[in-house]
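Researcher: Re-running this chain for the archive, since the previous output was lost when a drive failed. Same request as before.
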Amino acid sequence: MLQRTLGTHTVSAIGLGGMPMSIEGRPDEARAIATIHAALDAGVTLIDTADAYHLHPGEAGHNEALIARALVAYGARRGDILVATKAGHLRPGDGSWTVNGDPSYLKNAAKASAQRLGGDSIGLLQFHRPDPRVPYADSVGALSELLDEGVIEMAGISNADVSQIREAHQILGPRLASVQNQFSPAFVSSVDEMRECAELGIAFIPWSPLGGIGRAGDVGTRFHAFQQVADARGVSAQQVVLAWELALGEHVIPIPGASRPSSILDSAGAVELELTEDELAALNADVLPTE
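Model: Regenerated structure tokens:
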């Protein structure tokens, strides 16, 4: 599979988003593990998760533990797969979301995640979402301390704007490996952040790259240019979307979510789809803002 650079690691250009396997509508564990194994069989070496990916109260870390079990069952070697998790966004279990960017909380959450993932350290920890009650520098500073302590190997941020990316880069320097923001044809407001990451040499990881849970299936209906290219190529509109995102920069690593093997296998096929300049121009014109 096509590979890309993420900090000190080389990973597959398409990752697996684990969220759909642990929240509303989640599959049974056998299908979830089969989905993760299908991704690994296809050459996926980046799996995204978070301690907040769970459904019920009292099961924080559900998705992390699920991924850990799947990797053990597969026999994957720890160094072969990069598991990226996040801390700082909480789900009490009533469908709501809250944030906590307190440095002490982030450090304790990271250590709990490391235990659930089955190791002494986390390959990549990203600060999940800014907390307006806590200075951003303080939250990012916790990542710096976790790096120094060896609890995490790489640090990243998520749901960050350009000013926050620059602030985090000032604090972490080259140890800032990634920015994970929402980005898809339906949500292109992070294009400036994507370009800032290119300038700084940071991986940009689009979450919900197909438009989000429950919306990925109709991306071709909502964005006709993508469906037209898909029809001409004999592939799914979802593959065209991911191939388009990959073409936006060598630092872009989409992480489509999946809850069944067929979904991630289709997504993984996007790395083989090389779009022409004319096709890219048509797709860009359909969704990207003009400069």
